[in-house]
Design brief:
The protein is of the alpha+beta class and 398 residues long. It contains 13 helices and 14 strands. The strands form 6 sheets. Strands 9-12-13-14 form a 4-stranded mixed beta sheet. Strand 7 and strand 8 form a beta hairpin. Helix 8 packs across helix 10, helix 9 crosses helix 12 and helix 11 runs parallel beside helix 13 (361-393). The protein is flat.
């Protein structure tokens, strides 16, 4: 398209100044011709009047005057009355029915539509499982997918689907509704629902009452199907994973543990009697390693299985923490923490070598990884933060 065709001329200036587009012209009018703008109008509305001669818009349905929309820099197409809104809705429904064979209300009942709505929220996200994405719709679900299943248990995430691939029907107030669980572990036929326990609920009494009743009806359907042996179902409330760990432990034995990945350095959860957890606790008062995947997760798993996370889980944790440093104060605290952890790991390595004549491979690997990469990441981040502070002192953009 020819850029010249988009250029506009100020109709007020004697020298007929030319501008790149209408937005530039509106800014110009607001700055240099504000005395010409009628009271209560903005520059956009005045520019529109100079161009079209219109002092108001006209409702496309009833013909009444419509207000100015400063965001779109146009007059509203509708007056906003209930009758016109209904007429617009009816026309849209008819057009949608003609185009797709279904009205909006009918489309809203489809499982695909409900999935899209739930996972379009600002709290939603996804975890890449290789051949598919696992969607989650809250911070609680994210912690369970990323921290518990993927990082802590080292689960085979290709076996996990979020939302569930299955849909279930329940009756509420005489009408049929669709329920889609948050997650599905396919090989176990295990449907999982993640709830926050109502710590931050919508306090409107009607909404609370409806939600509780709907939840009860969903649970009733799922428990009935479970009693019939058609599925397994568990609801995890307020990050209490105790029952989930017990269930996974039982299923592991039933299925010979095929689904839990073991032996991988990055996901090894075998017992480490004096492993990195003890090191972190001993030197910490400072080291926040337990906060990585959550103290509750480690504690709950330990109660059920007596297992701890492996050394190599320190590495992704520290990479993440380094990237999260926003200033030198945070950076120096983390640098001290990492150095303490490294010193403790080296001390443990020397002790094992002197006492037993050999050193655990995981321990050697994590020390080497810290020497080769983690400390390098620290140097890069430190240089970045120093440059950032220097530019801030000089008054330059970040």
């Amino acid at each position: 398209m020819n850029n010249l065709a988009r250029k506009v001329i100020c109709p007020i200036c004697e020298e007929r100044r030319v501008f790149k587009d209408r937005d530039y012209l509106i800014t110009h009018i607001g700055k240099y011709h504000k005395d010409c703008i009628p009271e209560g109008w903005d520059a956009g509305r005045y520019e529109n009047f100079l161009r079209t001669g219109k002092e108001h818009g006209t409702c496309v349905y009833c013909g009444k005057e419509t207000k100015w929309n400063p965001d779109s820099k146009k007059y509203y197409r509708m007056c906003g009355s209930a009758a016109c809104k209904k007429k617009a809705s009816d026309i849209a429904e008819a057009n949608l029915k003609k185009k797709t064979g279904m009205t909006k209300s009918e489309r809203m009942k489809l499982p695909e539509t409900q999935r899209k709505m739930v996972y379009a929220k600002h709290t939603s996200g996804k975890y890449n499982a290789g051949d598919h994405d696992i969607m989650y719709d809250s911070s609680y679900a994210k912690e369970f997918v990323v921290d518990v299943l993927a990082n802590f248990l080292g689960y085979n995430m290709k076996d996990v689907y979020g939302p569930s691939l299955n849909t279930y029907k329940y009756i509420f107030e005489g009408k049929e509704h669709i329920y889609i669980p948050d997650l599905l572990i396919q090989s176990y036929g295990l449907e999982i629902e993640i709830k926050d326990g109502g710590d931050n609920p919508n306090m409107h009494p009607k909404i609370q009452a409806v939600d509780k009743k709907k939840e009860a009806e969903k649970d009733k359907v799922m428990m009935k199907l479970q009693s019939e042996g058609k599925l397994r179902y568990i609801k995890i409330v307020n990050k209490d994973y105790t029952e989930f760990f017990k269930l996974i432990s039982e299923l592991n034995q039933m299925y010979d543990g095929d689904q839990i990945v073991k032996g991988s350095p990055s996901t090894d959860i075998r017992p480490l009697e004096e492993g990195v957890i003890d090191i972190a606790v001993d030197i910490a008062k400072g080291v926040e390693f337990l906060g990585t995947y959550g103290k509750d997760i480690l504690y709950q798993s330990d109660v059920v299985q007596g297992k701890r996370v492996g050394y190599m889980q320190l590495i992704p944790f520290y990479y993440k923490k380094i990237k999260q440093c926003r200033n030198m104060q945070e950076f120096n605290a983390l640098k001290t923490q990492i150095q303490r952890t490294y010193d403790s790991l080296v001390s443990k390595k020397n002790f094992e070598k002197e006492e037993y004549g050999h050193v655990e491979k995981d321990l050697e690997d994590v020390i080497k990884e810290m020497e080769d990469h983690v400390f390098r990441e620290l140097e890069v981040r430190e240089a970045y933060l120093l440059r950032k502070e220097e530019r801030k002192r000089d008054g330059k953009p970040k």
